[in-house]
Amino acid sequence: MATRWGICGAGKISDDFTVALKTRPTEDHQVVAVACKLEDAQEFSRKHNISQAYGSYEELARDPDVDVVYVGVIHPYHLKACKLFINAKKNVLCEKSLAMNTKEVKEILDSAKKNNVFLMEAAWTRFFQASVQIRNLLSWEYIGEVKMVRADYGVPLLHMSRSDQKDRCEGALLGLGICCLQFISMVYNGEKPESIQASGTCLETGVDETLAVILGYSKNRMAMFTCSAGVELHSDALIVGTKGTIQVLSPMWCPTSLVVNRKETQQLVPEPSLSLNFTYSTGKRCEIEEVRQCLLKGRKESPDTPQAYTLLLAEMGDEICQQVGGVYSQDCQNMATRWGICGAGKISHDFTVALKTLPAEDHQVVAVAARKLEDAHEFSRKHNISKAYGSYEELARDPDIDVVYVGVIHPYHLKACKLFINAKKNVLCEKPLAMNTKEVKEILDSAKKNDVFLMEAVWTRFFPASVEIRKLLAEGEIGEVKMARADFGAPLFHVPRSDQKDLGGGALLGLGISCLQFISMVYNGEKPESIQASGICLEAGVDESVAVILQYSKNRMAMFTCSAGVHLHGEAFIAGTKGIIEVLSPMWCPIALVVNEKVTQYPVPEPHLPLNFTYSTGMRYEAEEVRQCLLKGLKESPVMPHADSLLLAEMEDEIRQQLGVVYSQDCQ
Ligand SMILES: NC(=O)C1=CN([C@@H]2O[C@H](COP(=O)(O)OP(=O)(O)OC[C@H]3O[C@@H](n4cnc5c(N)ncnc54)[C@H](OP(=O)(O)O)[C@@H]3O)[C@@H](O)[C@H]2O)C=CC1
Ligand SMILES: O=C1OC[C@@H](O)[C@H](O)[C@H]1O
Question: Residue limits of the GFO/IDH/MocA-like oxidoreductase domain (predicted)?
């Protein structure tokens, strides 16, 4: 009985695929239907003598006479099309690249598994006679142990709309480089490379034009490829072993000539019955027959292109895209921000609980790292995190992390931030960003140099109440601001990190910073004209209680008190020429505002686990700010910009100097 094909999409590749199918016996393969815009489907069906033409993919999905659908639409539509057919229990052969990124590929693979249907990415090169011969030669170790693989594929394609428009297409990697990658992956038997280094040029649209990639494999083996949608490359491939070489002559993506240890053999493809759009497309007959054989044997995937290979290709593609800066809208949309947590202490616990109050589609914690592996394990068990590392370095190397939350105590912020930033990780670091201005500058500089996002976790700024305060001030609700005041005091000296100097102790950096950032927010990041600080210090040399007066231009002022020895009321207010905004306690995680005597509440969600600190689920707002910044490609938050972190550090330095609090970091 013939395998009955449905064709999804009536473009160039579907045209060639249908011609290739005709080179097979009609007892084995028949095209029974085609679907796309109705007039195009009708024209396609007339040209190829197909009995059924549908004006929608949904009709094709419902056709009971179709055994397998060939998805020949452009990549951005693969996910939707594949899921439609798979959910209708159709087997699917989908053009390469199976989807735009790993997340989409996983979604397609999962749905094929769930629906128990056959699915294969149309990596047609693998099924050419020449590729079969290569696999045989490698398994016989005909050229000894493989040490190096190289492939190139370049064709000027930028005149084709799908190749230069990011929303419609793929760029050089997804369009061409994927053939080189799959070749390398075939030679190395689906092994994951140990390293990938990619460099490339992108068009103004953000699409990658030309790429060069080096892959490092275990046991000192390597591979490299170049691809270009801008220029013609030689487009051959080479496998170098300890005892010889296999050369795949151009076109390596539809190979018909091999040179094995200098001896050339040719395996030609049949002539087409109609003219083709692409080189040697009748070679697709091999993948077509592979699908039939798999269906006859009841297989759900091809042993020659298993789904694990498809996944690996997507993962490598994502890594390369990330390195060259080619990000597609699909990479951002619907994709969770993947957090790594550095430090398994109290605030990291609270932050992780706060993340759980946000949709799992938007935020996921994928790994935690602590100095001791058992602490990381305990944390990961408690929070159901899949990866636990016993060092921060391992977290820095994890390719699955988009952003690291640094929740260690402040003397270690500099080292941790630099580690992650140098590993090209985005960072949200607990406050204070560092111990002094010098350290803060070092972190900011390294974030700039490495072109990553960095934000000091000044969570207060992102509470809805703070958003409301900024709105009211901008609208002039209380007239011209003349005075701001804040207090924050809590007896904390039972906590070592609060009274020990080498652990970053002291009221100012622990608590006063929340008051200082509030004042700085009210005065829009302006530098005060003068600062007068007075305070009392413990014998250990850290500040216990501090009172500070700040003078701003145009006769405006601010003041705050903080104490790590006693409880203070924890309120703040902003007084203007036309009214007053009061922030009820706790002002550092505000849930109630009184604006000209009218009270408004802004409650935070309940936590699913007990918290260490007051209203910590409010850290969800800063986490969402990070996500939004990353989605927009920002390197700093407009609400808590780098300049504000620098100003905070400068003011803290000045206050500490007046109090006589000196940390070892100030002397280095
Ligand atoms: N937003 C807010 O309101 C709050 C902010 N914070 C800030 O968060 C940070 C951490 O505070 P918190 O969680 O209470 O602190 P913890 O005492 O719980 O310590 C946090 C982590 O810091 C690392 N650490 C602790 N002591 C040492 C040390 N002696 N040497 C090296 N590393 C050490 C540990 O990492 P590991 O697990 O790897 O061993 C530990 O788990 C501080 O910078 C603080 O200012 C804190 C509370 C509230
Ligand atoms: O460092 C701190 O420790 C105690 C907390 O209550 C406070 O919010 C934080 O800044």
Answer: 133-246, 468-582
The predicted pLDDT at position 164 comes to 43
The CA distance from 462 to 617, in Å, is 12
Backbone φ and ψ of 400, nearest 5°: -90, 5
The CATH classification number of 464-603+638-667 equals 3.30.360.10
- Domain 337-460: CATH superfamily is NAD(P)-binding Rossmann-like Domain (3.40.50.720)
Q: Looking at the CA of 354, name the nearest ligand.
A: 1
Contact 655, 533 (CB under 8 A): yes
Å from CA of 348 to ligand 1 middle:
8
Is the separation of the CB atoms in 329 and 209 below 8 Å?
A: no
CATH class of 3-122: alpha beta
Distance separating alpha carbons of residues 597 and 581, to the nearest angstrom: 8
ipTM of this complex: 0.94
Q: What is the pLDDT of residue 166?
A: 43
> Contact 434/649 with Cβ under 8 angstroms?
yes
Distance from C-alpha of 43 to C-alpha of 53, rounded to nearest angstrom: 9
What tokens appear for 20 in the block?
């290739």
Spatial distance between the Cα atoms of 407 and 397, rounded to a whole number of angstroms: 18
Atom of ligand 1 nearest to the CA of 347: 13
The encoded tokens of residue 183 equal 């070749």
**What was the pLDDT predicted at 668?**
84
Residue 221 sits at the vertex; the CA angle it makes with 219 and 227, to the nearest 5 degrees, is: 150
Atom of ligand 1 nearest to the CA of 376: 37
Architecture of the domain made up of 129-268+305-329: 2-Layer Sandwich (3.30)
